[in-house]
């Protein structure tokens, strides 16, 4: 039987061999391959999750007004911008489903366009979302600071573009795009800007930034509680921006049954409303980045601290990322991601997610030092 789309291997499944090697060490493996939170979410958020009394009815697909208002108030505090919760915000089930699924929805609206632009070193779901939509996935080069190079976009690709994805702070390299320039480029080329800003509160060089700072016309920003509040398992996020596009996405997503569960919406209201736990998490991640950099340096792979995010992006000795990944697993028990997971332009590097607790990173360092 002839098959159409055959899904590729899920990148992180390819690391099972390394996990088996690392697990042979006393104390087991220390998985720094995925940006999955290891710290507990705030107690008041967990309490809201359990006490919402919202289990019986269908939750609103767009998010309750409390959900959207909490998101809008957070954006005001974080970015000093005004977003209308009534018309410019919609809920999404985390943000990965939004990243992977939105090009398909946009293609229904604009069948004359067939191209998704995204950074050449980036989260793999941008490319996969283009594939799911039956679109051309066109990688845009990044500069030596891992920022998207708008000047490298072929005008022919821009003319066919359904959207341009940007991610600031960037995964995996921590680059900080000029989001005002990105938004202006999108407006001047009539290309929708989709700005993934889920690491905004872990911006180290300067304040958090958003593509909505200069206005919402032609721009959607995407935010998640997975990273800021250690709620990856709850699956709650939102998209905000251009009212016309938000309205369209809300209606389509309602028909498709995309619903953030009621208890998750209640927990999200509590999480967006509190900043103290995020400030604590910032301090944790910054210390872990320093420890991760010390570990990588011991393997001949020095990594500068990123401009944002909690990943270290290190050049492998000799450019052999898999060799470095195997050595880290065998000697330190640490699992990292080879850079090819994030595009061919990153194939000579590895990404270390600085998510593990300090005591686990200390164990990795002690394994290397022999102490």
Low-pLDDT stretches are none
Mean of residue pLDDT values: 97
Helicity, as a percent range:
25-40%
The CATH class assignment of the largest domain is Alpha Beta
List keywords for this structure.
single chain, 371 residues, alpha/beta, Aspartate Aminotransferase, domain 1, Aspartate Aminotransferase, domain 2, 2 domains, seven-stranded mixed β-sheet, three-stranded antiparallel β-sheet, 13 helices, 39% helix, globular
What does this structure look like?
The protein has 371 residues and is of the alpha/beta class. The protein folds into 2 domains: 11-40 and 277-369, Aspartate Aminotransferase, domain 1 (Alpha-Beta Complex); 43-272, Type I PLP-dependent aspartate aminotransferase-like (Major domain) (Aspartate Aminotransferase, domain 2, 3-Layer(aba) Sandwich), CATH 3.40.640. It has 13 helices and 12 strands. The protein has helices at 16-22, 43-50, 65-79, 96-109, 125-132, 155-159, 179-189, 225-228, 243-256, 262-272, 276-298, 321-332, 358-369; strands spanning 30-31, 89-92, 115-119, 136-140, 161-167, 192-196, 219-224, 237-241, 311-315, 334-335, 337-338, 349-353. A 7-stranded mixed beta sheet has the order 2-8-7-6-5-3-4, with helices on both faces. Strands 9-12-11 form a 3-stranded antiparallel beta sheet, with helices on one face. Strand 3 (115-119), helix 5 and strand 4 (136-140) form a beta-alpha-beta unit. Helix 3 runs parallel beside helix 10 (262-272), helix 4 (96-109) runs parallel beside helix 5 (125-132) and helix 11 packs parallel to helix 13. The longest helix has 23 residues, at 276-298. The protein is globular. The mean pLDDT is 97.
């Amino acid at each position: 039987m002839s098959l159409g789309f055959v899904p590729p291997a899920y990148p992180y499944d390819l690391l099972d061999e390394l996990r088996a090697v690392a697990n042979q060490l006393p104390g087991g493996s220390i998985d720094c391959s995925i940006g999955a939170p290891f710290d507990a979410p705030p107690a008041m958020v967990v309490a809201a999750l359990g006490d919402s009394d919202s289990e019986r009815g269908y939750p609103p697909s767009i998010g309750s007004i409390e959900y959207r208002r909490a998101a809008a108030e957070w954006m005001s505090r974080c970015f000093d911008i005004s977003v209308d919760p009534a018309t410019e915000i919609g809920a999404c089930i985390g943000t990965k489903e939004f990243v992977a699924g939105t090009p398909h929805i946009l293609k229904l609206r604009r069948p004359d366009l067939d191209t998704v632009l995204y950074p050449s070193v980036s989260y793999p779901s941008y490319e996969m979302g283009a594939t799911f939509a039956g679109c051309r996935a066109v990688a845009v080069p990044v500069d030596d600071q891992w920022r998207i190079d708008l000047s490298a976009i072929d005008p022919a690709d821009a003319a066919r573009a359904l959207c341009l994805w940007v991610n600031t702070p960037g995964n995996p390299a921590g680059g900080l795009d000029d989001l005002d320039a990105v938004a202006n480029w999108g407006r001047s080329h009539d290309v929708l800007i989709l700005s993934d800003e889920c690491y905004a509160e872990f911006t180290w060089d300067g304040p958090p930034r958003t593509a909505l700072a200069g206005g919402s016309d032609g721009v959607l920003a995407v935010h998640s509680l997975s990273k800021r509040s250690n709620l990856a398992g709850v699956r709650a996020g939102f998209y905000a921006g251009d009212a016309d596009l938000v309205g369209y996405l809300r209606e389509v997503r309602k028909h498709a049954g995309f619903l953030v569960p009621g208890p998750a919406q209640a927990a999200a209201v509590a999480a967006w409303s509190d900043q103290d736990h995020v400030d604590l998490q910032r301090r944790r991640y910054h210390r872990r980045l320093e420890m991760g950099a010390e570990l990588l340096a011991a393997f001949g792979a020095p990594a500068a601290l990123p401009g944002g995010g909690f990943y270290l992006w290190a050049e492998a000795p000799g450019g052999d990322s898999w060799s470095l990944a195997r050595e880290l697993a065998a000697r330190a028990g640490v699992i990292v991601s080879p850079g090819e997971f994030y595009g061919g332009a990153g194939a000579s590097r590895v990404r270390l997610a600085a998510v593990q607790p300090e005591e686990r990173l200390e164990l990795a360092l002690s394994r290397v030092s022999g102490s």
